[in-house]
Amino acid sequence: MSAVMHAASALQLRGIHKTYQLGEHRIHALRGVDLDVAPGELLALTGPSGSGKSTILNIGGLIDTPDAGEVVLNGRAIAGLDETQRTLLRRDGLGFIFQNFNLVPVMTVAENVDYPLFLAGVPASERRRRVAEQLAAVGLAEHEKHRPDALSGGQRQRVAIARALIKHPRLVIADEPTASLDSHTATQVLDLMRDSAHTHGAAFIFATHDERLTRRCDRVINLLDGSIQ
User: Fold this and answer.
1) Which residue, among 147, 7, 139, 30, has the nearest Cα to 76 in the 3D structure?
2) From residue 71, how far is each of 56, 93, 190 by CA, in Å?
3) pLDDT 10s digit of each residue in the chain, 229 long?
4) Where does the ABC transporter domain lie (predicted)?
5) Are 145 and 111 in contact (CB under 8 A)?
6) Which DSSP category does 169 fall into?
7) Fold for domain 37-65+81-228?
8) What is the distance between the alpha carbons of residues 38 and 36, in angstroms, rounded to a whole number?
9) CA–CA distance from 93 to each of 15, 65, 75, 87, 130 (Å)?
């Protein structure tokens, strides 16, 4: 694969196979998956539970490794990288929106959103400005001092989305990002993600069953039994 091909995609998967051992049974989660996600693209993965959506997210997000195949993230081949290098790549180039939010319960809303900037060493004044802008964009400016347990599920999801976008990542990995949102809020956050894609060239890859989301994606890929249909 050429360097030019690498540079053209936010994420490339080539010939990805992944199996899991479940008791005496071997589960084939992915069977030779090829996938390219372009900068600025919103890509939805659909399919029934167990079809391989979450496995693609985990491999693309460097949380899991394939049994076979090649992963190229933001132009860099992943094969041979140690865990420290993978962690730095995740921190620098990826945003994550998890179905269970993964917010830090002892931190306020503002502190949760600020945390990636803090880890990156961004000056405090710049962090405050960017956090305020991001919370306003997801409609949570008045909740900045609240902790996650004081928020509804939809509000916590919006905090998670704000945190994922705060560093303008090149690729955002999202597991059912609109599942707990009402229609009005879902539209707001989809507009925010679309704006991030257009303004910063961020690519988004979603695992979703939500037609509100799939209708507004650039491309929808259906998975079944670990294969793209």
Assistant:
1) 7
2) 11, 14, 27
3) 333 344 479 999 999 999 998 888 899 999 999 999 999 999 999 999 999 999 999 999 999 999 999 999 988 999 989 999 998 888 888 999 987 889 999 999 999 999 999 988 999 999 999 999 999 988 899 999 999 999 988 889 889 999 999 999 999 999 998 887 888 888 888 888 888 898 889 999 999 999 999 999 999 999 999 999 9
4) 11-229
5) no
6) -
7) Rossmann fold (3.40.50)
8) 6
9) 23, 17, 11, 10, 18
In terms of Cα–Cα distance, which of 78, 66, 2 is closest to 31?
A: 66
Tokens of 167: 């560093």
Residue 49's contacts (CB-CB under 8 Å, 6 or more residues apart) are none
Residue recorded with tokens 């959103």: 113
The count of other CB atoms within 10 Å of the CB of residue 119 is 11
Largest CA distance in the chain: 55
Which one, of 177, 183, 132, lies nearest residue 158 by Cα? 177
Give the DSSP letter of residue 147.
-
- Report the alpha-carbon distance of residue 22 to residue 218 in Å, rounded: 35
Determine contact, residues 20/67, Cβ cutoff 8 Å: no
Gap between the Cα atoms of 127 and 114, Å rounded: 6
| Tokens describing residue 84 | 């420290």
Q: Write the DSSP string, 176-224.
A: STTTT--HHHHHHHHHHHHHHHHHH--EEEEE---HHHHTTSSEEEEEE
The domains of the chain are located at: 37-65+81-228
